[in-house]
């Protein structure tokens, strides 16, 4: 609105007005117009306050983007039918979908703050797999169809086929996207 009109309106209504305005360089400012009261409680004009809120707005924007990205990723993970998980740079599980928990036969609470070495009965504690995942993080070398022997039923060995690739977040943190497929191999 018009700055002068806003001043008159505040003097008439005695209701403070606040707005956010931007300059041509992309800076953001909070403009507040408040009634000015004298010491004997008479209204005698207005006080105009002007704050630079550029950094606050930038922070709000980046937090919103981070939240959107997290929700977007969570939705994708839940939509994928294959067992799927996201690991951090210490190979801890940050998020996983229901099929992933079902393959591991654990509840979601059962893998909080655990690394993949702790999964199952230690079948994931494989030096080869750990080495491959470190290569994903450090050299961006994807893991393609790595077979991990996972358990035995009466007649056949069960394997997990593991695929993994690097994902670098907007804040430059490195994550691993891990997809798992169950395959049966006859012994």
- Estimate the global geometry from the Cα principal axes: rod-shaped
Mean pLDDT: 84
* Uncertain parts: none
Query: What is the helical fraction, as a range of percent?
Result: 25-40%
Structure description:
It is a single chain. The chain has 187 residues and is of the alpha+beta class. Helices cover 30% and strands 37% of the residues. It has four helices and eight strands; from the N terminus they run αβββαββααβββ. The strands form two sheets. It has a five-stranded antiparallel beta sheet, with helices on both faces. A three-stranded antiparallel beta sheet has the order 1-2-3, sandwiched between helices. It starts with a helix and ends with a strand.
Quick structural overview:
By secondary structure, the protein is of the alpha+beta class. It is built from four helices and eight strands, in the order H-E-E-E-H-E-E-H-H-E-E-E.
Topology (SSEs and partners):
Layout lengths: L2 H11 L3 E6 L5 E10 L5 E10 L1 H26 L4 E4 L5 E4 L1 H7 L22 H13 L3 E10 L3 E13 L5 E13 L1
Antiparallel strand pairs: 1-2, 2-3, 4-5, 4-8, 6-7, 7-8
What key phrases describe this protein's structure?
alpha+beta; five-stranded antiparallel β-sheet; 187 residues; single chain; 37% strand; three-stranded antiparallel β-sheet
